[in-house]
């Protein structure tokens, strides 16, 4: 994943053997999310894109993606 998008090529869902592994991943992801929210406001107007096989699945301003997919 880049700050401006994600490719779904080769995507495989994470599999865990223990609940503790899942909790650790969630903690790490939360810390990374907090870091990513510290962008200057103008950076959120830039488009974020999800692609698969060279085809765009969705594209929208970062603030809409964060509000619609992350916060909700």
How would you sum up this structure, described in words?
This protein has 72 residues and is an alpha+beta fold. It has one domain (5-71). Helices cover 39% and strands 22% of the residues. The chain has two helices and three strands, in the order βαββα. Strand 1 (5-7), helix 1 and strand 2 form a beta-alpha-beta unit. It is flat and about 40 Å long.
Please outline the helices and strands.
Elements: E1 5-7, H1 19-36, E2 47-52, E3 55-61, H2 62-71
Parallel strand pairs: 1-2
Antiparallel strand pairs: 2-3
Q: Quick summary of this structure?
A:
By secondary structure, this protein is α+β, with helices and mostly antiparallel strands. It is built from 2 helices and 3 strands; from the N terminus they run E-H-E-E-H. It has a 3-stranded mixed β-sheet with strand order 1-2-3.
Q: Tell me roughly what share of residues is in helical segments.
A: 25-40%
Calculate the terminal CA-CA distance, rounded to whole Å: 20 Å
Determine the structural class based on helices, strands and strand pairing: alpha+beta
Widest sheet: strand order?
A: 1-2-3
Keyword list:
2 helices, flat, three-stranded mixed β-sheet, alpha+beta, 39% helix, 72 residues, 3 strands
